[in-house]
Amino acid sequence: MELIFSVFITILYVLTRGASGATNLFNVMDYGAVGDGKTDDSAAFSKAWKSTCNSPSRNPILVIPASKIFLLKPVTFSGPCKSTSIHVLMSGNIVAPDSKSAWKGYHLDMWLAFTNVNGLTIIGSGTINGRGAIWWSECSSYRVPEALTFYRCNGLVLKGTKHINSQRNHIAIFNCKDVTFSNLHISPPKTSPNTDGIDIASSSNVRILNSFVGTGDDCIAISSGSSHINITGIACGPGHGISVGSLGAHGGNDTVEEVHVRNCTFNETMTGVRIKTWQGGVGYARKILFEKIKFIRADNPIIIDQYYCPGGHCKNEVGQLESKSLTPICIFMVADNWFLNLLMVDIGH
Question: What is the DSSP letter of 292?
């Protein structure tokens, strides 16, 4: 796949050179990156991104070359960009600092972030390694960075990359539309806390396809404001399964709808497919379909929890996130494998 993309960018290079003859390939090595895994290459990546984003070319391409390891401190790749089609060829590997002191002076919410970049495609076999073990003992996950964040990135494509040992969530998308993730490999240790594979919030028209996700928390989590989410061909395990929610925790009107999960396998997960709503919450989760799901030794294959309260001090009250209709179509078991075909409609008010 990467070879095909390399040919593709070569064609783009030939066909889309600007009138001035300026290149549309921007290799981080040309901007001072070292790639030895020890030198801080953050400034070089920022400079290369600025040139890519400001390029007048129709298809500017940021190149992260193979056989290199790039150490990056927190970096934000901001848009909007001049082109409506931005490509990143990620052949090399990226690692986070291996000590907390290196994060001094930075916000502790994100490590690598793309914001306001439309038409972004990231493809390649490179690995993003969050070196998260130094963070996993933190009591509060909200003071721990997310590894890769996309904010207001419409028309987003992420394909073929590997993601390991995130500090917290491996990939998070917020306020994005028309997103396709495919052929990803996400794998921290199963004992790593709060290391969700993919988190989706306030986003629509999201497709997650043909990927392996094994984590210490949710393989995929779908939060409030999300709709038209299609998840197909995911191998999940270890982890906590694919979750809708939790919803209703902060007193707002939390909504999720049109979620379709198909042809997925859950192997030795704590839970399989689940919907989580807090006591006293307001909103709805509706038009949710789990279809052709396979469970292999999952502890709790199906959970609909309307009294979600993992930390104690619960309100012990009923809110307006209530189950209105649940229609099981077909559930059967062969040996220790569960197969699920379950339709859920209008879970909420």
Answer: E
